[in-house]
Design goal:
Helices cover about 60% and strands about 15% of the residues. It has about 475 residues and is an alpha+beta fold. Strand 1 (about 30-35) and strand 2 form a beta hairpin.
């Protein structure tokens, strides 16, 4: 997109890089609040039909000719979605009212984003009096900014707050006090307050430079009203880990205590990150109040100072919470170190006891092995005698008395059958054992062959040396 009659600048180049993430093409849902000249009521127009671009052209042309104050309100479906206007529709509004390219920096901070900090920008731009002529050659001033705030959504019990933002661009014609406003994603409270203010202003029938400054302050004060609740909720988030740190029992720690303490340390880091972001938002709001004071000098100075004092109060509370979290984090770290040492010591002691028990079992095994070895030796010694006694007590050898009356042993005629059967069973036993142990035997043979080949191949090398 290029702003007509404007040279290409940094804001336009950045805008073009992100334009595909900013708009819903073919959609131009724009609400317009306006105060017409010589009318004592607030006129509201809303464009949502399929032929929305043509209707937007007609509306903008009417505003150029008839409106004294006009507010274009452009919304998103949700905080991180695209604006419900096409790129052509926004170009039409910017070109028709000759808005500065600085407003594109505000637009670029909206649209589709991965998270709240993606393309986040909460600064402001001021165009002082006399820097740019309008179509009727009157001098104009322009103020563009993004104001961030916190809002409760209650979607997540762990973190029911979100950082939201509103984009504002206001162009004011000096002398006539005609003004054009563009509001991006205003909150419901800001929208309701804006309508009430404009209805009162339309009935009065007169405008002044102070009215524009008052509207800016209305926006800031409306958004600042949620900070007190956010600070109160944050104190509860800070107290939880602090109680865990100060009431922890480290005399007899368990793995459950170690896990709970580690979760408390993680929560401290999450809360601290949220509070640092809140500090950044408060600082930007404070700086924006200074910018509004500089843009409208000597106007509502007391009101601006009161707003800044409230922002400073919330900032001090959050800084105090961050300091609390720093002490809690250090204490939790020391507790984790102590618990880890105690758990490690208990584990080492248990390991030593296990090693001692295993040593006792090994010693008992060695003693049992000695006894079994002794019994095996005794059985081996008596094995030949047992074999002889078995043979002589069997029917294979008979005790007979000869003619002289002497007792002699005689081997039966089929003794050879015992020998054959014994040898056959022995061979069968070895065959079965070899079959069962065949894998180990084959592996041993393979290893032996490999060693033999390595030995044979190494001998010629030794001879050459």
């Amino acid at each position: 997109m290029c702003i007509k009659s404007m040279p290409d600048d940094f804001h336009q180049r950045r805008f073009r890089r992100h334009s595909s993430d900013l708009f819903e093409e073919g959609v131009n849902n724009v609400e317009c609040l306006r105060i017409l000249r010589n009318h004592e009521h607030l006129d509201r127009r809303s464009i949502e039909s399929k032929e929305s671009l043509h209707q937007l052209v007609v509306l903008v042309e009417e505003n150029q000719d008839k409106a004294k104050e006009v507010f274009y309100i452009i919304r998103q479906r949700n905080t991180l979605s695209r604006l419900k206007i096409s790129e052509q529709g926004l170009q039409l509004i910017i070109d028709a009212h000759n808005l500065s390219t600085r407003f594109l920096r505000v637009v670029t901070s909206f649209g589709w984003r991965r998270h709240d900090e993606h393309r986040a920008w909460d600064g402001y731009y001021i165009s002082p009096t006399g820097t740019k002529p309008s179509r009727n050659f009157n001098r104009v001033t322009e103020l563009s900014y993004v104001v961030r705030y916190v809002e409760r959504h209650d979607r997540s019990p762990q973190n029911p707050w979100s950082v939201r933002q509103i984009g504002v661009c206001q162009q004011n014609v000096v002398g006539t006090e005609d003004s054009v406003w563009v509001l991006l994603q205003p909150s419901q409270s800001v929208y309701n307050e804006l309508k009430d203010t404009l209805e009162r202003r339309a009935q009065n029938g007169s405008t002044s430079p102070e009215d524009s400054c008052s509207l800016h302050l209305d926006i800031l004060e409306s958004l600042a009203s949620s900070w007190a609740d956010y600070v109160e909720w944050s104190w509860g988030e800070v107290d939880g880990p602090d109680d865990r740190a100060t009431l922890s029992n480290i005399e007899f720690p368990t793995e459950k205590d170690l896990g709970a303490t580690f979760q408390a340390a993680q929560k401290v880091q999450r809360v601290r990150r949220r509070l640092l972001r809140a500090i950044s938002v408060l600082d930007s709001n404070y700086a924006l109040a200074d910018g509004i004071a500089a843009h409208f000098p000597n106007t509502f100075t007391t009101r601006i100072e009161n707003y800044k004092a409230e922002i400073n109060m919330h900032r001090r509370n959050i800084l105090l919470m961050i300091e609390h979290l720093k002490g809690t984090s250090d204490l939790l770290f020391n507790i984790l170190s102590s618990l880890n040492d105690k758990v490690s010591l208990a584990g080492t002691q248990a390991m030593q006891q296990s090693l001692g028990l295993m040593g006792s079992i090994a010693q008992q095994g060695r003693e049992d092995s000695t006894v079994l070895k002794l019994l095996s030796m005794i059985a081996t010694v008596y094995l030949p005698a047992s074999l002889v006694a078995t043979i002589f007590s069997s029917n294979l050898i008979e005790l007979k008395t000869d003619d002289k009356g002497l007792d002699t042993f005689h081997v039966v005629s089929q003794f050879w059958l015992y020998i054959v059967i014994a040898i056959a069973l022995t061979v069968a036993t070895f065959i079965c054992a070899a079959f069962v142990l065949r894998r180990k035997i084959l592996q041993d043979l393979h290893n032996y062959r490999c060693k033999l080949k390595a030995k044979i191949s190494s001998e010629p090398e030794k001879q050459e040396v």
